[in-house]
Amino acid sequence: MTYRRIVTDIHETLPRLDPHTDAFYQDPYPAYAELRDKAPVYEIPDQPGLFFVTTWPLVREALMDPARFSNNMPAARRDTPPPEVIDEVEALRAQGYPYRPALGTNDPPDHTRYRKMVNRAFTVRGLAWMEPLVDEVSDQIASSLPDGEVID
Length: 152
Known about the structure:
two-stranded antiparallel sheet; 2 strands
């Protein structure tokens, strides 16, 4: 049995997963749990070649081997900008600023170059200004939780 056939068989036993729906964005965790259990490598329907990989050993394997597992996103898979900013995005592109894949949709050496640029912002000193905000939001979330119940 080929890998493609295994993926097809899995799709026949799982509900159709659309990672672009509001419901998925609001609570993807049940879908992730089902995929980890039943299809740790899941090809997204209607998007051939785009996969969810949901177990740590498989994710690690994919991340460590960009020659076999690319993060480059073909132009056909890029979302259109949201309506409220599309005019601004198109104006920038008209000035000669084309779409450029960023950190998450790139492979080395471009990924490495982008990562070096953003790593500077994620130092202890660079993030210190956020501590009061994180404390405030954490307190708000914690205070909204029910007392005396187990929380997942």
